[in-house]
Amino acid sequence: MPLAIVVLAAGRGTRMVSSKPKVLHPIAGLPMLFHAMQPAAGLDPDRCVVVAGFAAEQVSQALQEHMPHAEIVIQKEQLGTAHAVDQARGALADFDGDVIVLFGDTPFIRPETLQAMLDARRAAADVVVLGFEPADPARYGRLVLEGGRLQRIVEAKDASPQELQIGLCNSGVICCSRKNLFDLISRIGCGNAAGEYYLTGIVEQANDAGLACAVVTCAEEETLGINSRAELARAEVIFQTRARQAAMAAGVTLVAPETVFFAPDTRLERDVLVEPNVVFGPGVQIGEGAVVRAFSHLEGCQVGREAVIGPYARLRPGSAIGEGAKVGNFVETKNATLEAGAKANHLSYLGDARIGAGANIGAGTITCNYDGVMKHRTAVGAGAFIGSNSALVAPVSVAAGAIVAAGSVVTRDVPEDALALGRAEQDNKAGAAERLRARKAAAQDA
Ligand code: UD1
Ligand code: MG
């Protein structure tokens, strides 16, 4: 049975106080919209329709970047959640299957919860609503049950004092066949306190049409919606807490878990050890037994087994660190491969470079990759030794087994096993220091 997802993301999110639509504010570096859509990805939907409104061009751009298969439809005026869903009517006209409606600002629904809704829908119900029992139900829509059957949903603004006593609330997520969804919402009016077309009206319409409605429940934490920067920060905490727990459960040691920050796609193999204050940006993979020492920042990189990174290392996109290699303190790499056992232990910039197996990059070595217009590559062969404070002016190569003397500026390729000296020759003038001091002292006395 095919499945479509409709994600409501047209609201401005006034309380964010932002020029950016709320759904594009990031959690763990990725727009919350994509966190909201992530749990549905596990159900392998055939179609994904995002309803955008406020700053729709920005939403469209972000979708192209992160989720090119998603479609976007525009809700010009935000007349309510039913009106928002109705904007997907045309896009789904030829779709025959079930639809799950999600909110773009609700990023923590678990895939298992959506699966349970889909199962309930296919087993016994025409309309399935996701309910939960919040500690404080104040502003949520209430699920009105009679004889164990869901009769209707009443928004807090429209509820009677008795209805406000109900603890079971509406998360906003619903599941329904495409045909029933659009048939039923076309009958929903806007005669309520807010004058909006409420999607919640679908339950009453379904019951009037003799269809069956059911409730699946989940934990309150799953339904957490984000409306303000403070709630965004809280969402980051929830995401990071889960990511840390998942990493530890998978055999990763986090010395101070609360100081390590993950991206949604961070992949750490077992026995990786992460010291305090480490940030993983998007696209990081780390092999078994590697160590990431304190205060390191990694993104878009692969780190091989048993490698040691940091403390204070920065691995930028395109870095590939081989098995047992070392990237030490205040070393930055970008678009650079360090093959197995290579070492860059101190104070270096390695950009657009390939460092061969077992090569040693001395303290302060810089690959001069940028000439102000173009980027160029540096190649260092296996087992080569680059003396401290050398500048490798790209494009340039130092072949296997070669040695570059400390302080060299290397502008020409160095052949295999050669010694390159690219610096002024030293001249020792006997006794000159003493004569210099005497002259200065005399000038001071005068
Ligand atoms: C909604 C539910 C309420 C539920 C609560 C859970 C309705 C009528 N009410 O209320 O029962 O308890 O969520 O958080 O559905 N949106 C659009 N276009 C619109 C209106 C809204 O895209 O015209 C989007 C918003 O951007 C948001 C989502 O739909 O992502 C929910 O809208 P919101 O205004 O937050 O609904 P609530 O009042 O919270
Ligand atoms: Mg809301």
General description of the model:
There is one protein chain. The protein is of the alpha/beta class. The protein has two domains: about 5-225, Spore Coat Polysaccharide Biosynthesis Protein SpsA, Chain A, CATH 3.90.550; about 235-420, 3 Solenoid (UDP N-Acetylglucosamine Acyltransferase, domain 1), CATH 2.160.10.10. The chain has nine helices and 36 strands. The strands form six sheets. Strands 13, 14, 16, 17, 19, 20, 22, 23, 25, 27, 30 and 33 form a twelve-stranded parallel sheet that branches. Strands 12-15-18-21-24-26-28-31-34-36 form a ten-stranded parallel sheet, covered by helices on one side. The mean pLDDT is about 95. Uridine-diphosphate-N-acetylglucosamine binds near residues 141 and 170. Uridine-diphosphate-N-acetylglucosamine (UD1) binds near residues 104 and 171.
